[in-house]
Amino acid sequence: MSRKLILILSLLLVFLLTAVKAHNVSKNEQKVCALQHRSGSKHFPSNFKFGASTAAYQIEGGWNEDGRGPSIWDTFTHQHPEMIDDHSTGDEGPDSYHKFDKDLEALKELKVHFYRFSISWSRILPNADISSKNQKGIDYYNMIINKLLENGIEPVVTMFHYDLPESLNLYGGFTNLELIKYFTNYAKLLFETYGDRVKVWITFNEPYDYCIPGYGDGNYPPMGHDHGVADYLCMDTTLKAHAEVYRLYRQNFFEKQKGKIGMTLSTRFYFSKTNNSSIIDRAMQYSLGWLAYPLFGETGNYPQVMLDDIAKNSEEEGRAWSRLRSIAENERDIIKHSADFLGLNYYTSRYVEEANPAQGKKPSWQYDSRLKYELDVKWKRGKSNWLYCVPEGLEGLLNWIKNNYNNIEVIITENGWSDDGQLDDMERIDYLKAHLQAVLNAINMGCNVTRYTHWSLIDNFEWQRGYTEKFGLYYVNISSAGKERIAKYSARYYKSVIESKIIPDFVAGN
Ligand code: BGC
Fold first, then answer.
1. Nearest atom in ligand 1 to 471's CA
2. How far is CA 275 from the centre of its chain?
C-alpha cells in the first residue's frame, strides 16, 4: 500500500471516530436526567439532614504509616495492577490521612449536617485482633470526630467499607464464621473509644458488592471464584456479624450512648415493561431483600423465594445441602429487627424480565436469580458504564421499602454521578436535583427518609476504575503534592439546597 493511501485511510479513520464520538456525545446530551413531577410540598422537613460521604481506602492514603496493617485492597492493588484501569492504588490517593483539614474545609463550606466516613479496621487493629491495638490509628479517628463536632458536623461512621484486614483473609475472610468474633471485638473497641461522640453507626457497606465480586466472580479482592457458594457464605457471615454487633450495642452500650445502628445495602430499582409485578418483586428479593428481609421482615430468615429456588437448584446439582442455608431457628431472633434503620445506596435502575432458561455460570447468583435486565434508551449515562440517571427508580424504591418493611427509617447513605472531574459539572447538578426531587416526593408520600448523603465529598480512588471516574463535589488534583480540594459547580448547588432546604432550579454563579 502506498504511503499516500495509508495517509488517506488514516485520516478517514480519524474522521469516522470523531464523528461517532460526536454522535454519541450528542445522543447523551439529548437524554434527560430529570424528574418531571413534584408531589406535595417543595420543602424538605425542617429536621431532614444532608451530608456527604467517603470511605477510608478511597481517600486516606498513608497506607503503611504509623503502624497501619495491610488490607486486602492494598494487597490486590499492589499485586494486580492489571486489575485497575489506570494501574493505580490507594497508597496515597487524596491523602486524607495527612490532609483531613482540607476535607473539613469542604464540609464546612457545604454546611453539611453530617459527614459519613469509614474507619480502616487495619489502621486501628493492624492484625484485626484487639491484641494489636494501634494508638496512632485510634488517635487519627479521634481527631476527625472531635474536629467535626467542634464545627457542628455530626460524624456518621461506617465500620467496614470493603477494606478487610489482610490477616483475616489468610484464613478465609468472610467465608469463615470466625470473622464474626473478630468483627464484634473490633466494633466493641469502636463503641468504647468513640461511642460517647458517635451516635450513628453503619456496620457494613454494601455486602452484595464485596461478596459477589470478591468471592464469586473474582474481580475484587480476595479474588475468590467460588460463585454461588463462597459469595453466599460471605453474605451469611456479614448478616450474622451485623446482628451480633447490634445486640452487643443494645445490651452494653445503648443505655449510656443512645446511638443507633444500621447496615448499608445497595440496590437498583426494577421496572417491568409488561407490568409484571411478580418479576419486580423477585428482582427486589434477590437484591435488596437478600439481607433486608432477614433484618426487617418477620421471619429473621432469607426471602422464601431465594431459599426455595436455591434449595431446588442445589438438589438438582446433586448437593447434600442447599448453597443458601436457611438461618437456624435459634439465630432468627437475633437477626430479626437487628437494625434501627436501613442505610440505602442508590445509583441507578433497570428494566427486568425473567430469564428463561436461566443465564450465567452454574451455580451462581445470576443463574439462581433467573433475571435479565434491560436499559431504556432515554436514560442518560454517566462516566461509569453501569450508571444511568433514573430518579424515578429512587422514588419507586423508597415506596417499595415503605410498603414492604413497615416504613422503617431510611438513611440514604450514598447517591451520586460520575464524570471526568470537570469543575462545571452540570450533569452532576441535574442528577442531584432530580434525585433530591425523588426523595422529596417519597417523603411527601409518607416514606420515612430522614437523611440524604451525597457520594462523594471529594474525587477519590474508584476501586477498579482507579482515578478514571470522578464522583466528587470537590475536585482533587491527585498528581499534585498539595492535593487541593476545589469546589465544583455542584458543591455550590448542594450548599444552596442545604441552606434553603428546597431544591432550587438555578444557583447564581453557575
Ligand atoms: C460504593 C463506593 C463507590 C461508589 C461508586 C458505592 O457502591 O460504596 O465505594 O465509590 O459506589 O461506584
1. 5
2. 29
Give the pLDDT confidence of 109-166 residue by residue, as tens digits. Answer: 999 999 999 999 999 999 999 999 999 999 999 999 999 999 999 999 999 999 999 9
Phi, psi of 52, rounded to the nearest 5 degrees: -140, 155
Check residue 395 and give left, alpha or beta (phi > 0: left; psi -120 to 50: alpha): alpha
- pLDDT band, very low/low/confident/very high, at 510 (cuts 50, 70, 90): very low
Protein residue closest via CA to atom 3 of ligand 1: 462
Neighbours of 225 (CB within 10 A): 12
Which residues does 175 contact at the CB level (< 8 Å), separation at least 6? Answer: 215, 224, 230, 233, 234, 237
What number of other Cβ atoms are within 10 A of residue 160's Cβ? 27
Question: Around 209, how many Cα atoms within 13 Å sit in the side-chain half-sphere?
Answer: 17
Query: What CA–CA distance (Å, rounded) separates 313 from 345?
Result: 30
SS3 assignment for 169-226: HCCCHHHCCCHHHHHHHHHHHHHHHHCCCCCEEEEEECHHHHHHHHHHHCCCCCCCCC
Give the distance (Å) from ligand 1 centre to CA of residue 224.
20
What is the whole-number distance in angstroms between the Cα of residue 110 and the centre of ligand 1?
21
Of 204, 216, 128, the C-alpha closest to 175 is 216
Give ligand 1 pocket residues (Cβ under 6 A): 55, 58, 205-206, 209, 266, 345, 414, 455, 462, 471
pLDDT at 499: 98
What is the distance in A from the centroid of ligand 1 to the CA of 370? 25
Cα-to-centroid distance, 402 and ligand 1 (Å): 24
The SS3 call for residue 73 is: helix
Which residue, by CA, sits nearest to atom 5 of ligand 1? 462
354 catalytic residue (yes or no): no
On the question of pLDDT at 409 being above 70, the answer is yes
- Active-site residue, selected from the candidate residues 92, 154, 166, 206: 206
Mutational test site, ligand 1, from 118, 212, 414, max ligand atoms within 8 Å of CB: 414
- pLDDT tens, 187-218? 999 999 999 999 999 999 999 999 999 999 99
Grid cell, residue 46, equals 425542617
Catalytic member of 92, 166, 414, 427: 414
- Enter the pTM of the model: 0.94
- Is-catalytic flag, 206? yes
The Cα–Cα gap between 237 and 368 comes to: 20
> Which grid cell is 39?
408531589
